[in-house]
Amino acid sequence: MKKGVMRPGHVQLRVMNMQDAIAHYRDLMGLIETDQDSQGRVYLKGWTEVDHFSLVLREDSTPGMDFMAFKVLDEKTLDALHQDLRAYGVKVTEIPAGDLKGCGRRLSFVAPTGHTFELYATKEQTGRYGVGNHNPEAWPRGLQGMQAQRLDHCLLYGDDLDNTYRLFQEVLGFDLCEQVMAEDGTRVAQFLTVSMKAHDIAFIRHTEKDKLHHVSFLLESWEQVLKAGDLLTMTNTAIDIGPTRHGITHGQTIYFFDPSGNRNEVYSGGDSFYPDHPPITWDADKLGKAIFYHDRKLNERFLTVVT
């Protein structure tokens, strides 16, 4: 049963040099810089996103993810989810409106995997960059780099996938789209959605809590993913793997690293999901093909490098 969570809203990343990070996310990936605040945080968004921002960068001595947020239907829904989380035994911290520029009040909580998540209902809407909502053109002129369209999902590493799944399914209303299962019945990976997308968030079982594997942004087409690969080589940006295709979700992908070591993905295509669809299951011994459909094997970096 859906609980009013609509979609991924924003993610805040720690970066070790802000100017290098801006050059990466704005100039190379093509996100739009929309704001800065008194704490020195920088706000960006994809050009198709109507909200004020979807990515926040915070300078720090170590890379990684501070939190990921989901937007809910309205303030009444936010209040209901607050009650549901507390009834489920989750400690919730209320963050006042304005702590993030242009964003309303937020509810913050920690999942059993150790990751911090937020829910919010209100954020300033600045519209689709360069085209607006009235007789819009196909795309805005002057876009840079990869021309990333929107924040798509995060893949997170943590230890307690089972209780995290129950929290997301029972309290937040997410569906399980795909999973990777070991022979002993342990779920090794879970791909969850609250929409018709292949996934809005995913988790892989890992011994440490609160680790970021990657943040993913949507591109328009496979051709744009190939162009992203060209741009990564032109700028001597560290590539993890790709361009290639996933088995899970069937999307086309390339993985690479920002200057601080946070892994990024740009992604196109992918399956659609409806609530009556049963989860797709992959066997753990087919994980190489599930992740990298063409190579059919995982590289060591992909398995071990997290922030």
Radius of gyration equals 18 Å
How much of the sequence is in beta strands?
A: 25-35%
When the domains are counted, the total is 2
CATH topology of the largest domain: 2,3-Dihydroxybiphenyl 1,2-Dioxygenase, domain 1
Order of helices and strands: EHEEEEHEEEEHEEEEHEEEEHH
Task: Tally the helices.
Answer: 6
This entry's quaternary arrangement is single chain
Overall body shape? globular
The CATH architecture designation of the largest domain is Roll
CATH homology group of the largest domain: 2,3-Dihydroxybiphenyl 1,2-Dioxygenase, domain 1
- Reading off the top of the CATH hierarchy, the class of the largest domain is best stated as Alpha Beta
Strand line-up across the major sheet:
14-15-16-13-9-12-11-10-17
Average pLDDT works out at: 93
- What is the SS-derived class? alpha/beta
Distance between the termini: 33 Å
Largest sheet: 9 strands, mixed
Helix content: 10-25%
Number-wise, the strands total 17
Low-confidence stretches: none
